[in-house]
């Protein structure tokens, strides 16, 4: 069954929210806290070892009630049911959206076209476990009898970003295998990776659903050519694996059937790390930790599916995003994790969020009349504080931000972690409170500065404050907590897409440039150039000189 087609701006709740915004847009967070001593408690939710404090947002109880009413008006509960039950909610591609099935319980029944997909999922999970264990233990060897020391993931987009992010995030749990990622079609990229490798001890994983993706296949063929400079075609079976559905192309490449892992149409690329696309993750951290990652995500799935909306963390975060994007006209959101391990987390969800919800056509096929999608960006704290926080604190743009922190560090360095988390808490407080002209003046007077200099300097040291933030405080970065965190943001994407009445799970917007590149490649390789606009024509001519 399809999702309901409801333009959110036609709902009663949207009209009420518009009126409410006009009445409250000037409110100050400091005043809201002064008026309500219990505000922090009222706007905090705890689930497992996750604590979400969303009290530092420009909302009141009434705002939250109206946002929850909006969720009801667009039939979010019905959409969640269809999402988990395998309905073809990716209508433009005629597919279900079931990355949640990849981490479902073994005894669950999830039907796609009348067939329970869970047994097949577990077959692949068992294959991942057995294959990973054979490589990690040294049982699986290279063509000269040496054990595997390096693993190279060859993919792009969802076949790269998820494994890269998770492998980096869980580096603490890594085993002895060195993991590398080749994604960009830039030949310099692949050559830099190959410089570090020994063909006798390297396993290559080619990740491409169709086994035709230009970037991935170009890199794979370059690597194959490099490999065959020292090895034979018969040796490919010892060093190459594939995650794909194109068995014919895989066989042509020389990959052994036992080294092939399937993909499914009901899993989108940017949500595929939970599948065999995560094989490089299982190899890097071990299959047990990979299973724990899946289990953490499954627990968040259960929370999202069953919790009342008023206590549902993905729903609340999605609704807050709508509030700022569509009423405050805040076009960007920052994700700031206070751990270096999550250095690729924001980049991963740039794809997840912007490829999913960067749509200008609603589910009726009509142009939307309201903003959809949010521009996602961010870097780890405290590095980010010394980079772009100036813009968030004193710039002209309203930038809601998610702060993600952990109560315990992995190596137990108390001094470092206390200083890190002191900044974590201080920044959200500073963004909320700001600093008034009087406060600046008193500080400068205390330093003995002359009145004339103070008067000149005060305007530059004032902080407006009133900047909204969410604080996610998690006990510890583990495979399970990371799985839950990723799933949380996946479900936030879903909530946003339902409310905006768009299809979140296609990505036609990435196709046009790829199609045109086929023509321009012929122009670059050939003696003549086909018809283009004058700018592109000039650039091609200059490139070919």
Protein model, in words:
- With 545 residues, this protein is of the alpha/beta class.
- The protein has 4 domains: 8-73 and 307-430 and 467-500, Rossmann fold; 103-291, Glucose-6-phosphate isomerase like protein, domain 1 (Rossmann fold, 3-Layer(aba) Sandwich); 434-465, no CATH class; 512-544.
- It is built from 22 helices and 13 strands.
- It has helices at residues 12-24, 29-35, 39-42, 61-73, 76-85, 118-137, 161-169, 187-194, 214-228, 236-239, 247-253, 279-285, 287-306, 313-327, 345-357, 389-394, 414-433, 437-446, 451-461, 479-500, 511-525, 534-544; strands spanning 44-47, 50-53, 111-112, 115-116, 150-154, 178-182, 202-207, 240-243, 260-261, 332-337, 375-377, 401-406, 469-474.
- The strands form 3 sheets. It has a 6-stranded mixed β-sheet with strand order 1-2-13-12-10-11, with helices on both faces. Strands 6-5-7-8-9 form a 5-stranded parallel β-sheet, sandwiched between helices.
- Helix 1 (12-24) packs antiparallel against helix 4 (61-73) and helix 14 crosses helix 20 (479-500).
- The chain is globular and about 80 Å long.
- The N and C termini lie far apart (56 Å).
- 44% of the residues are buried.
- The mean pLDDT is 97.
């Amino acid at each position: 069954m399809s999702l309901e087609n409801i333009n959110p701006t036609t709902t009663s709740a949207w009209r009420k929210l518009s009126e409410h915004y006009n009445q409250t847009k000037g409110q100050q967070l400091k005043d809201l806290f002064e008026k309500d001593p219990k505000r922090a408690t009222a706007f905090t939710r705890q689930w497992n070892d996750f604590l979400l404090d969303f009290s530092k947002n420009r909302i009141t109880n009434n705002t939250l009630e109206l946002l929850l009413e909006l969720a009801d008006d667009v039939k979010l509960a019905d959409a969640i049911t269809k999402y988990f039950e395998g309905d073809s909610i990716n209508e433009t591609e005629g597919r279900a959206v079931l990355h949640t099935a990849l981490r479902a319980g073994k005894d669950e029944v999830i039907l796609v076209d009348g067939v329970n997909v869970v047994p097949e999922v577990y077959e692949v999970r068992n294959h991942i476990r057995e294959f990973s264990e054979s490589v990690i233990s040294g049982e699986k060897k290279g063509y000269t009898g040496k054990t595997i020391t390096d693993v190279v993931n060859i993919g792009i987009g969802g076949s790269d970003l998820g494994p890269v992010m998770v492998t980096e995030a869980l580096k603490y749990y890594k085993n002895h295998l060195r993991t590398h990622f080749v994604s960009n079609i830039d030949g310099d990229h692949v050559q830099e990776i190959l410089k570090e490798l020994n063909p006798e001890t390297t396993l290559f994983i080619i990740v491409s659903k169709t086994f035709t993706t230009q970037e991935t296949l170009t890199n794979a063929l370059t690597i194959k050519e490099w490999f065959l400079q020292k090895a034979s075609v018969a040796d490919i079976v010892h060093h190459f694996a594939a995650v794909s559905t194109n068995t014919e192309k895989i066989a042509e490449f020389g990959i052994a059937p036992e080294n092939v892992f399937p993909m499914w149409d009901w899993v989108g690329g940017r949500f595929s790390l939970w599948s065999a696309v995560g094989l490089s993750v299982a190899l890097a951290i071990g299959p047990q930790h990979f299973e724990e990652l899946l289990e953490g995500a499954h627990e968040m799935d259960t929370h999202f599916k069953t919790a009342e909306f008023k206590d549902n963390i993905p729903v609340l975060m999605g609704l807050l995003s709508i509030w700022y994007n569509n009423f405050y006209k805040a076009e960007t959101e920052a994700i700031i994790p206070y751990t270096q391990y999550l250095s690729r987390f924001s980049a991963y969800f740039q794809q997840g969020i912007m490829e999913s919800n960067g749509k200008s056509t609603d589910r009726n096929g009509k142009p939307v009349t309201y903003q959809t999608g949010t521009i996602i960006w961010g870097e780890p704290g405290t590095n980010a504080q010394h980079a772009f926080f100036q813009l968030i604190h004193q710039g002209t743009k309203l930038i809601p931000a998610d702060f993600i922190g952990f109560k315990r560090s992995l190596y137990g360095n108390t001094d470092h972690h206390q200083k890190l988390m002191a900044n974590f808490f201080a920044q959200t407080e500073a963004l909320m409170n700001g600093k008034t002209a009087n406060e600046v003046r008193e500080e400068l007077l205390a330093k003995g500065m002359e009145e004339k200099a103070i008067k000149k300097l005060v305007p530059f040291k004032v902080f407006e404050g009133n900047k909204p933030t969410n604080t996610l405080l998690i006990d510890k970065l583990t495979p399970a907590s990371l799985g839950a965190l990723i799933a949380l943001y996946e479900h936030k994407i879903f909530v946003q897409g339902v409310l905006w009445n768009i299809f979140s799970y296609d990505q036609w917007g990435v196709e046009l440039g790829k199609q045109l590149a086929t023509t321009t490649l012929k122009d670059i390789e050939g003696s003549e150039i086909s018809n283009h606009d004058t700018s592109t024509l000039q650039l091609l001519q200059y490139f070919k000189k």
